[in-house]
């Protein structure tokens, strides 16, 4: 079995804030194989932004690495130098964000930006321009040659997101990190972006780490899914296992709450009462215990570890242990 | 789960927490070493200016010819000038003059500029165009030339300097206030207030103004040393406050003429200007970092 | 009893026509959902009704009174009865006021200072399920869900008759969306509230609204009861919207209606049926402007409605 492309192993990150140490990420472990699409499902406060910043080694000043490693193509990103990271960002690892304007300069033409981003290549300008035209056409922007001479404000939100994807994939990265790229888009645009990502993935064979809180998109796009809650991984498995055989109460509740899941008009919509706990306080027991309707006594005092429940399925819940044979 | 509401009367504070916010800002500034230095220097300066009359060891305008042009001693900390007046007392008194000019000029300009800027930013297009034209026209005059022209017309005095400074500063605050107002005008919370039927005064006074005054305060803090220097410069030229009122600028003027007899007048005139400038600049820069959340480096 | 009646409303911004003749009504006690994507004009519509955006033609009747073209002063008394909730939960709260100050703003604006604003604040917080000590917090200290509820409390402070909600679940996590919608439903029953909700999220429309209208490029293209539109949609755009939501089911069948191209710009509207540039079923006849086609309260504006 070939080694995974990205291996996140026990990563723990704290933020030093005025109120104390905020335990933003605790023991995060999962991997992404070559050519695979892995989804991260999580709601606000689950730590996905911190995770992306950690992979890219772009954490703010008050972040403190406590333990863990991130192996990318065999190299530990956490111990890599800034120069090594700079070489990788935009080349081996690319990112697209929720707001495409985070990737685009509003005062420079798209064409110039798409050529500039190829700065590592020694090809002549004409070749770079040609490549830009090709990439734009690949993401379905008609009339690419004229469009390259336009500025970002002349495009709609959906088109800007496609341009951002084109730019991210220009260098043929091994890993594309997509941070909620469709959350701000209307449904019809969302499905178009998903379709493009699927097509591009087939053509380029890159791995994709797709972060979203939209379960429908995750189900449609991803092969494996990581479920995060308040800084921990609570479940990790293939998309079928997660959606049809969820082994963590949070995953189960999340699927129940998704309005797309509810077929008929409901008098009362299901919801998960309460809020995520304060991560600056000392955390005992299971992180989800306070809001869990199935918790047992053990959940209050001991933190459940991520346990393997089959070849492709891991979950962190004491309830699973009760079912295991002694 | 929401907390159960107890029988205890929960006193709910309706008013804006201006006081506690001010304390938070001051605290934030004090935590920064440069900011702390700034706070201390400005504190000393304000203290001297307020209590000058009581803390001067000698009468700043009292002539004592037989003691003229002495060097520093235990009686006269920085020596005396050509009329036997205590240089140190004149230095302390000079701070009062500096403050008497800087504070009304800068804060007056800030509040007038704030009001005009908010009106320009929030009001109809034609009013905005008119006010912007006025601002730009005034700004196009070189400050010192304008000051000299006014002094030539009206004669030198404290009031003249205050007027000149205010007139030339109002457009600066006005422009900044206008830009902030334009930016906030279409924000959702302003729209929300309009949807509830809030009056113009309410929107500008309660919802816009507190969000603009932070930025203006930073400008004001940085502006004060400029005004102090302007007053000193005019007084140095003999076009500022009338003698015998001591001003740092007039100390420099006398010291320049008497530099061979005693260098201490120049020290007494120049050093406080330098220190006050540093102090207000440190304060202003730290204030800006505290007030503008986008400049924060941490989460 | 019809509470709100909008007829042939047209708005334009400079030379750009945003709304090109919208007509619908909301009855007392009912919830009407306006569904549309960006560029459909739904935000402009709701702002025009609230008196925040000017409308050049048409009429907005609230309990028989014409609201279009009213000055701010004349509009003020109606603001007690028509209340607006904004899309950005935290951004729609004035950052320098406390929660207590924010939810009692309506009282102060309407000059009702003789009331005990303290107890009103506590009552309102209780109504939306927030603890009383939240009154001292500032907007930046609130989570999206909490800020949303403060917005609801503020909107309902004066017990309005009509609540206009702009994307009430935008920015909310899935696990708290249900909570907010349940709250709105409860309050609607308790206070006899009528609601006009605009959203692009079809998933929630099904659970909150009685009737709904689909907007495209500044016009309604289909309207009917929620059940009718969901189960028997007639307009190709409605079908496309309904089929677009990805289902949280990896094995879901994807018989999607894919729309051609991008939404046309408002400056270059297609002639005739404005949807024909993207409609997979467009024929020659669509070059004409379609009229309304109504059966049992279910209206559609299409020459070849789907069955």
List the helices and strands and how they pair.
The complex is a heterotrimer of chains A (326), B (299) and C (307).
Chain A: E1 6-17, E2 20-32, E3 37-41, H1 48-56, E4 63-72, E5 75-76, H2 82-88, E6 93-96, H3 110-116, H4 125-138, H5 144-147, H6 157-169, E7 175-179, H7 187-204, E8 207-212, H8 215-221, E9 224-229, E10 232-238, H9 239-244, H10 249-257, H11 297-301, E11 307-308, E12 313-315, H12 318-323
Parallel strand pairs in A: 3-8, 3-9, 6-7, 7-8
Antiparallel strand pairs in A: 1-2, 1-4, 4-5, 9-10, 10-12, 11-12
Chain B: H1 18-31, H2 33-55, H3 87-122, H4 125-139, H5 143-154, H6 158-185, H7 188-195, H8 200-236, H9 248-257, H10 264-291
Helix pairs in contact in B: 1-10, 2-3, 2-10, 3-4, 3-6, 3-8, 3-10, 4-6, 5-6, 6-8, 8-9, 8-10, 9-10
Chain C: E1 2-13, E2 16-27, E3 31-35, H1 42-49, E4 57-62, E5 65-66, H2 72-75, E6 82-85, H3 99-103, H4 105-109, H5 117-127, H6 144-156, E7 162-166, H7 174-191, E8 194-199, H8 202-208, E9 211-216, E10 219-225, H9 226-231, H10 236-244, E11 293-295, E12 298-300
Parallel strand pairs in C: 3-8, 3-9, 6-7, 7-8
Antiparallel strand pairs in C: 1-2, 1-4, 4-5, 9-10, 10-12, 11-12
Molecular structure report:
The complex is a heterotrimer of chains A (326), B (299) and C (307). Chain A has a single domain (6-92, 173-323), classed as P-loop containing nucleotide triphosphate hydrolases (Rossmann fold, 3-Layer(aba) Sandwich). Chain A is globular and about 65 Å long. Helices cover 32% and strands 23% of the residues of chain A. The model of chain A has no long low-confidence stretch (mean pLDDT 88). The longest helix of chain A is centred in the middle third of the chain and has 18 residues, at 187-204. Chain A starts with 5 loop residues before the first strand and ends with a helix. In chain A, strand 9 (224-229) and strand 10 (232-238) form a beta hairpin. Chain A has helices at residues 48-56, 82-88, 110-116, 125-138, 144-147, 157-169, 187-204, 215-221, 239-244, 249-257, 297-301, 318-323, and strands spanning 6-17, 20-32, 37-41, 63-72, 75-76, 93-96, 175-179, 207-212, 224-229, 232-238, 307-308, 313-315. An eight-stranded mixed beta sheet of chain A has the order 6-7-8-3-9-10-12-11, with helices on both faces. Chain A has a four-stranded antiparallel beta sheet with strand order 2-1-4-5, covered by helices on one side. By secondary structure, chain A is an alpha/beta fold. Chain B is an all-alpha fold and 299 residues long. Chain B has a single domain (31-57, 74-293), classed as MetI-like fold (Orthogonal Bundle), CATH 1.10.3720. Chain B has ten helices and no strands. Chain B is elongated. The model of chain B is unreliable at 1-17 and 294-299 (pLDDT under 50). Chain C has 307 residues and is of the alpha/beta class. Chain C has helices spanning 42-49, 72-75, 99-103, 105-109, 117-127, 144-156, 174-191, 202-208, 226-231, 236-244; strands at 2-13, 16-27, 31-35, 57-62, 65-66, 82-85, 162-166, 194-199, 211-216, 219-225, 293-295, 298-300. In chain C, the strands form two sheets. In chain C, strands 6-7-8-3-9-10-12-11 form an eight-stranded mixed beta sheet, sandwiched between helices. The longest helix of chain C is centred in the middle third of the chain and has 18 residues, at 174-191. Chain C has ten helices and twelve strands. In chain C, strand 9 and strand 10 form a beta hairpin. Chain C starts with a strand and ends in a 7-residue tail after the last strand. At the B-C interface, helix 7 and helix 8 of B face helix 4 and helix 5 of C.
């Amino acid at each position: 079995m070939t080694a995974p492309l990205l291996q996140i192993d026990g990563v723990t990150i704290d933020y030093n804030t005025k109120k104390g140490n905020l335990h933003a990420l605790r023991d995060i472990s999962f991997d992404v194989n070559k050519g695979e699409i892995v989804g991260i499902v999580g709601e606000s406060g689950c730590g996905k932004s911190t995770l992306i910043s950690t992979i890219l080694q772009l954490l703010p000043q008050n972040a403190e690495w406590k333990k863990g490693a991130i192996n990318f193509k065999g190299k530990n990103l956490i111990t890599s130098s800034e120069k090594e990271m700079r070489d990788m960002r935009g080349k081996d690892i690319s990112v697209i964000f929720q707001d495409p304007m985070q990737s685009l300069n509003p005062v420079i033409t798209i064409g110039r930006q798409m050529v500039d981003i190829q700065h590592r290549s020694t090809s002549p300008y004409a070749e770079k321009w040609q490549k830009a035209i090709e990439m734009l056409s690949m993401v379905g922007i008609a009339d690419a040659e004229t469009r390259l001479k336009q500025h970002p404000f002349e495009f709609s939100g959906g088109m800007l997101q496609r341009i951002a994807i084109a730019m991210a994939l220009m260098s043929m990265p091994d890993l594309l990190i997509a941070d909620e790229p469709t959350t701000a888009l209307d449904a019809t645009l969302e499905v178009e972006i998903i379709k493009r990502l699927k097509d591009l993935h087939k053509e380029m064979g890159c791995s994709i780490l797709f972060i979203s809180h939209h379960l429908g998109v995750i189900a449609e796009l991803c092969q494996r899914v990581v479920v995060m809650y308040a800084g921990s991984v609570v479940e990790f498995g293939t998309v079928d296992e997660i959606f049809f055989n969820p082994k963590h109460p949070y995953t189960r509740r999340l699927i129940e709450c998704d309005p797309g899941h509810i077929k008929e008009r409901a008098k009362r919509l299901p919801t998960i009462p309460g809020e995520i706990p304060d991560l600056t306080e000392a955390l005992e027991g299971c992180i989800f215990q306070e809001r869990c309707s199935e918790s047992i006594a053990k959940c209050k005092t001991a933190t459940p570890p991520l346990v393997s429940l089959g070849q492709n399925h891991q979950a962190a819940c004491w309830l699973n242990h009760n079912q295991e044979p002694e | 789960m929401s907390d159960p509401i107890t029988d205890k009367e929960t006193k709910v504070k309706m008013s804006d927490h201006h006081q506690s916010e001010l304390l938070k800002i001051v605290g934030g500034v004090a935590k920064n070493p440069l900011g702390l230095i700034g706070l201390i220097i400005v504190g000393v300066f304000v203290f001297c200016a307020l209590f000058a009359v009581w803390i001067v060891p000698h009468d700043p305008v009292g002539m004592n010819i037989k003691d003229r042009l002495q060097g520093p001693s235990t009686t006269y900390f920085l020596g005396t000038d050509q009329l036997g007046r205590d240089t140190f007392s004149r230095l302390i008194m000079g701070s009062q003059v500096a403050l008497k000019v800087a504070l009304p000029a800068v804060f007056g300009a800030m509040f007038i500029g704030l009001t005009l800027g908010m009106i320009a930013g929030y009001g109809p297009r034609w009013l905005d165009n008119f006010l912007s034209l006025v601002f730009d026209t005034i700004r196009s005059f070189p400050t010192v030339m304008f000051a000299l022209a006014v002094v030539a017309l009206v004669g030198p005095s404290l009031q003249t300097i205050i007027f000149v400074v205010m007139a030339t500063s109002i457009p600066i605050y006005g422009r900044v206030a206008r830009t902030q107002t334009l930016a906030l005008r279409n924000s959702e919370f302003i729209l929300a207030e309009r949807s509830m039927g809030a009056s113009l005064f309410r929107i500008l006074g309660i919802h816009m103004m507190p969000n603009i005054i932070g930025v203006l305060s930073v400008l004001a803090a940085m502006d004060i040393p400029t005004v102090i220097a302007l007053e000193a410069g005019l007084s140095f030229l003999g076009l500022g406050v009338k003698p015998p009122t001591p001003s740092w600028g007039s100390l420099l003027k006398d010291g320049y003429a008497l530099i061979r007899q005693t260098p201490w007048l120049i020290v007494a005139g120049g050093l406080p200007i330098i220190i006050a400038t540093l102090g207000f600049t440190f304060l202003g820069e730290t204030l800006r970092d505290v007030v503008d959340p986008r400049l924060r480096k941490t989460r | 009893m019809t509470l709100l009646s909008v007829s042939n409303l047209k708005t334009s911004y400079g030379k750009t026509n945003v709304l090109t003749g919208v007509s619908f009504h909301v009855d007392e006690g009912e919830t009407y959902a306006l569904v549309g994507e960006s560029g459909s004009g739904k935000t402009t519509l709701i702002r025009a009704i609230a008196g925040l955006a000017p409308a050049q033609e048409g009429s907005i009747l609230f309990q028989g009174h014409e609201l279009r073209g009213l000055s701010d002063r004349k509009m003020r008394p109606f603001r007690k009865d028509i209340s607006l909730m904004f899309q950005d939960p935290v951004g729609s709260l004035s950052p320098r006021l406390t929660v207590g100050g924010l939810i009692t703003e309506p009282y102060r604006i309407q000059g009702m200072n003789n009331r005990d604003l303290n107890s009103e604040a506590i009552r309102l917080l209780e109504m939306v399920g927030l603890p009383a000590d939240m009154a001292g917090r500032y907007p930046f200290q609130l989570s999206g869900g909490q800020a949303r509820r403060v917005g609801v409390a503020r909107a309902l402070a004066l017990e309005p008759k009509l609540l206009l909600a702009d994307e009430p679940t935008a920015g909310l996590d899935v696990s708290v969306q249900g909570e907010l919608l349940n709250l709105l439903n409860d309050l609607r029953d308790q206070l006899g509230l009528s609601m006009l909700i605009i959203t692009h999220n079809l998933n929630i429309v099904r659970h909150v609204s009685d009737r709904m209208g689909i907007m495209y490029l500044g016009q309604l293209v289909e309207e009917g009861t929620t059940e009718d539109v969901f189960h028997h949609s007639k307009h190709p755009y409605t079908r496309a919207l309904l089929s677009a939501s990805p289902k949280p089911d990896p094995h879901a069948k994807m018989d999607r209606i894919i729309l051609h191209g991008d939404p046309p710009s408002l400056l270059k509207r297609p002639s005739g049926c404005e949807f024909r540039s993207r409609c997979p079923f467009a024929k020659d006849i669509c070059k004409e402007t379609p009229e309304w086609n109504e059966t049992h309260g279910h209206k559609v504006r299409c020459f070849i409605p789907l069955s």
